[in-house]
Amino acid sequence: MPLEKLHHLAKRYEHYKGIASESYLHAAHVFQRDTDSEYEAMLYNPFICIILQGRKEVHIGQNSVSLVPNDALLVSHDLPVTAKIFEASQAAPYRSLVFALDMGLLRSLYDQVGEMFQNEASASALAATPADPSFIAPMVRYLELMDAPLDAQILGPMIVKEIHFRLLMSPIGGMLRNLLSVDSHASRIARSINKIRSSFREPLIVAELAEIAGMSPSSFHEHFKSVTGTTPLQYQKDLRLIEAREILLKGTPSVSAAGFEVGYESPTHFSRDYSRKFGCSPKHHLALAK
């Protein structure tokens, strides 16, 4: 079975990446954990993830997906999510194979095939489905290159391009196709997301984001939530809190300093939002850094 072979190769690839002094296989990453996790907040960048062992749940806003072995998770936009890993142990760790998506490569492919597609209103920026053999097969071939450095150097980029093409053409790729259409709602919302990400410390002005997206404020709010599963204000808040946690865990003079650094004006407001997001006070995470 292709997925069984992929899992076997992923276990070898994890070891290979740890010892290879020079690797030409940069596109893939194996994530492994041998204990269940709590619900953890993090920022997902566009990727395709294949669940090989264990289970995972991912939430954003009111949208959620539950993933089991042989499922694929496709993320098309930058998304602040909450995720939890289940059924992980030292004997049978949670394991997934992740390929980061190259949006420039996807755009070059879309230029060749874009006329074939129409906007898909039901597509989601966080999409899950049983893994499709069309993109599993090139993933297998990509990992097989770890035993042939010259082949990896020459053929690796070609296979990565094939993986992107298969995802673009697959049923799970609906939001990717929407995103790459220049004037689509998904593409416009992506521009507003870029603005929020680059200035998340600043006050959120919905009218300005709507103008960037070329929409009225009411239409922008509706389409933002349709694409991301959350509101612009909550999206910004999640970015702030995820960044604040990183600042606290690296060590900072105080909780209030972390809050101010990510854009909060009130330490009380910051501590309340932080506790709701992470289930513990910011002082707890600051203490871990000391």
UniProtKB/TrEMBL annotation:
Keywords: DNA-binding, Transcription, Transcription regulation
Pfam families xrefs: AraC_N, HTH_18
Transmembrane segments: none
InterPro entries (alphabetical): Homeodomain-like_sf (IPR009057), HTH_AraC (IPR018060), HTH_AraC-typ_CS (IPR018062), Tscrpt_reg_HTH_AraC_N (IPR009594)
Keyword Transcription recorded: yes
HTH araC/xylS-type domain boundaries: 190-288
Matching PANTHER family: ARAC-FAMILY TRANSCRIPTIONAL REGULATOR, ARAC_XYLS FAMILY TRANSCRIPTIONAL REGULATOR
Name the UniProt record assigns to this protein: AraC family transcriptional regulator
Organism of origin: Phaeobacter gallaeciensis
